[in-house]
Design a protein that fits this description.
- This protein has 119 residues and is α+β, with helices and mostly antiparallel strands.
- It has one domain (18-118).
- Helices cover 41% and strands 16% of the residues.
- The chain has three helices and three strands, in the order βαββαα.
- Strands 1-3-2 form a three-stranded antiparallel β-sheet.
Length: 119
């Protein structure tokens, strides 16, 4: 494409890298990321966040990162239902699940222990 040509509509479509809500992350990515940056920022954070959330009792699974057309995108991944897409469950259902689902219960216990040791 030359400077005088306009992009075709097909060139302007954006496909999310997976289910869920993805947001552009301009605060953690340079305008022209290198191959090393792209590899590190799409592989390492998900593993690191997963470990941190588990160790400290965070109510999330991880934060996923992906490169789309040279831009860094992220999504916050819930403990359950991450790949179903759509809106979150209604608050009463989420409240009930957070008290009955074994993973939520374990994270809640870990989170309380973490904050109690910090006090």
């Amino acid at each position: 494409m030359t400077a005088t040509e306009h992009p075709k509509p097909d060139d302007l479509t954006w496909e999310p890298p997976g289910a869920g809500t993805w947001e552009r992350d301009v605060s953690h990515a340079p305008p022209a990321p290198t191959r090393l940056f792209r590899r590190v920022m799409t592989d390492a954070p998900s593993t690191a966040y997963r470990a941190v959330f588990e160790d400290f009792g965070g109510p999330l699974d991880t934060i996923d990162m992906a490169m789309v057309r040279g831009g860094l995108y992220r999504r916050v991944t819930p403990l359950v239902g991450a790949d179903r897409g759509g809106p979150p469950p209604p608050m009463p259902i989420l409240w009930l699940a957070s008290r009955l689902h074994p993973t939520f219960r374990k994270r809640n216990k870990t989170g309380l222990a973490t904050f109690n040791t910090m006090s």
